[in-house]
Amino acid sequence: MRKGNLMSVRDDIKVLDATIRDGGLCNNFEFSDEFVYELYKTNIKAGVDYMEFGYKASLSMFNEADYGKWKFCKEEDIRAIVGENNSDMKIAVMADVGRCDFKTDFLPKSESVIDMVRVACYIHQIPAALEMIEHFHALGYETSCNIMAISQVPTDQVVQALETLNESSVDVIYLVDSFGSLYPENAGDFARLYYEIAEKAGKKVGFHAHNNQNLAFANTIETLSYGFSFLDVTVQGMGRGAGNCSSELLIGFLKNPKYNIYPILVFIEKYMAPLKAAGVKWGYDLQYMFTGLMNRHPREAIAFSANDRGDYANFYKELLDHD
Known about the structure:
alpha/beta; about 325 residues; 8 strands; TIM Barrel; 2 domains
């Protein structure tokens, strides 16, 4: 059952900007403080509901000197940008199962400017994700569970995972098209399944798209039409590999007058164009299309890009040979 129509304003919709977190995978999280501060101000002016600042990665597992600060999202670094965050926009960070020290690295919500912790996991990591979700809930945070690579998971396992999450304290359950392999038809099938199960427990549902087949925006508005309310975007689609659903596309589409595309366009001119000119790479290209078509991780396509290869036909044959 579709919710609303093309002229509807849906007050339940929450737009989440993940430019620093997913985009950080393109430049090793090495954004200038000016870039992050200006994006923060831009998102507020544009009516964005949540801004994800990056990962809360383990300082014992990852060498701090090898990454920009948004790989770790220390409280003092976020506060240096947002102060007390005297705005309506909420602050989010991502915690990867197995890659963060969640019991020691998170303050109680009452002492933190962070509002939401997004727990990312694969289907076999659901038990570990649940432990993290309950810990964050006890600390006072909003939580989401972002189940990655869902396009490779049998439907019965998806149902089991959703029913298990329904019994937890999680607030939002995310469908994640990690490989950019979904089409609107099967994104819609997943959306109906997620919504039907999550609604029973009063959970919200969200979508995180990848643009391997130029379908990130199409898939996002398809899931939206079936009741999804948390929608991930990045400015100009900046994100790992082929990138994500573009902020300017979704903000331009939504009919709620609280959203405003103009500040995003100004930010693109001033900050995104120089980033691309400096050689930071992301966005649709043939190598990512190939891995999307084959429903596989884009790591080989990312390596193809990093090596400045242009032998697309040969690379396609290599992927077929190793499928």
